[in-house]
Structures are given as structure tokens and as C-alpha cells.
Input
Amino acid sequence: MKAMAILIGLVGYTMAVKVMTILKMLKVDIEGWEQKDFEELLSDPRFLKYMR
Output
């Protein structure tokens, strides 16, 4: 839930749900991630290609 709260604050609810879905599909463990980690992920061009 902490991850979802951080993502909602950064990108809004709809985009946060999309990001969480992608992370689950890619089997990325986000346990213990902080806001800085999510900001880096959202600016990574390799991850952005999945956000279409």
C-alpha cells in the first residue's frame, strides 16, 4: 500500500494503477522502495516504453 500511495502522489491514481500492473507483470519486487526509487523508475526510458 505504501508503494501505491507514493505513486498516486507522483502521477495520479489512474497512472499509478497502470504502473503497479506493469510492475506485477514484470515481477519487480517493490517492497521497501522509497519515493526516489519510483521517480528514477518513471524517468527510465526502458520502462517508459511500457507506458504507452
